[in-house]
Amino acid sequence: MKKIITLLFSLLFTASVFAGEFPDIAITDVKKAITEKKITIIDVNGSDSWKEGHVPSAIDFEGAGDKLASQLPKDKAALVVAYCGGPSCGAYKAAAKKAKELGYTNVKHMAAGLSGWKSAGEKTEAGK
Predict the structure, then answer these.
(1) What are the residue ranges spanned by the domains of the chain?
(2) Is the dihedral of CA 25, 120, 63, 35 positive or negative?
(3) Which residue blocks in 44-91 are alpha helix, DSSP H?
């Protein structure tokens, strides 16, 4: 029995490590937070993609460059969400890690990405 418990604990620990350091947030929760103006979103798909269409209010990570800190909220506990193309894309990590380095403590990942956002029938906005 002790071996089984140890094995289960090991599997759970390993799964949590590989799940990533940034928890996933569902599209419905992102949409609600946008409506309530309680979210800062970072798009990591590149400036050309951002100009074509992004999740409403999303910051263009590539375009922000060194000025990202000035575009993030002053409250370090505020919700910051990074996303990229879709579930298999890992590019979001650059923005999520940057936000974490800047001291933000509530950083999440919208794993569905832009493709999931569109598939869910959600509207995008074009960048300028």
Answers:
(1) 21-119
(2) negative
(3) 47-52, 61-64, 68-71
In angstroms, the Cα distances linking 2 to 5, 6, 12, 47, 95 are: 5, 6, 15, 53, 42
- 77 token code pair: 């506990």
Position 18 pLDDT exceeds 90: no
Query: Model's pTM, two decimal places?
Result: 0.83
**CA 28/CA 92 separation, integer angstroms:** 19
Average pLDDT over every residue of 59-71? 96
Q: Please give the span between the terminal C-alpha atoms of the chain, in angstroms, as a whole number.
A: 61
Looking at domain 21-119, what is its CATH homologous superfamily? Answer: Rhodanese-like domain (3.40.250.10)
Q: What angle do CA 60, 112, 106 make, to 5 degrees?
A: 65
